[in-house]
Amino acid sequence: MAIFAQNSNAAPVQPPSPSLAEVPAPPAVNSSANQYSMIGKSIMIKGEIVAADPIYVYGTVEGSINAPAHRVTVGKEGIVKADISAREIVIMGDVCGNLEGTERVEIRNDGSLMGNLATRRIYIEEGAVLSGVIDVHKPSKKEKAEQEDAGVDRKGVVSFPVTEMVEEIA
């Protein structure tokens, strides 16, 4: 270690700051709440994706995507040639494959789906493209009972049987 004479005009010498290894990490409040997986525009994946977090696809995926407890979002620039199975699916880009959304599927106005779709709830914006079969299933009696026991508030929710909606469109 070198010793230097202190100039009266110079500022006092500060001790070196601790290295990153010595600095304690900030406490994690709820780290799992902010976790997600993102496939960027420049990424192309061929194969099977299984996720325990929400997935955002802005690149290209070929194969299958499975996130049973979370949402899969295909961004406007996303291109997916895969079957998707998730709790919720939101499409804003191009998807060619079959969808299984256990709770909800949304196809936004810039989105397109070429494939079959199965879900409990569906939302399709004007301008969206859909080519395939839609299967909207009702919750089973057991699931209805669980929702009632859990106190799920259905006030303000308007539901129409699919046959009535088809008759209105035709």
Radius of gyration: 25 Å
How many helices? The count is 2
Characterize the quaternary organization of these chains: single chain
Please give the largest β-sheet.
Answer: 11 strands, parallel
Mean pLDDT: 78
In one word, what is the shape?
globular
Structural class: mainly beta
Order of helices and strands: EEEEEEEEEEEHH
Helix percent band: 10-25%
Strand content: 35-45%
- Spans with pLDDT under 50 lasting ≥5 residues? 16-31, 155-170
Distance between the termini: 86 Å
**How many strand units?**
11
Biased composition (Polar residues): 1-11
InterPro entries: BacA/B (IPR007607)
Organism: Telmatobacter sp. DSM 110680
Region (Disordered): 1-26
Write a compact overview of the structure shown:
This protein is mainly β.
Key traits:
single chain, 170 residues, mainly beta, disordered C terminus
List the helices and strands and how they pair.
Layout: E1 37-39, E2 44-50, E3 55-57, E4 60-74, E5 79-91, E6 94-96, E7 99-107, E8 112-114, E9 117-124, E10 129-131, E11 134-136, H1 141-150, H2 162-169
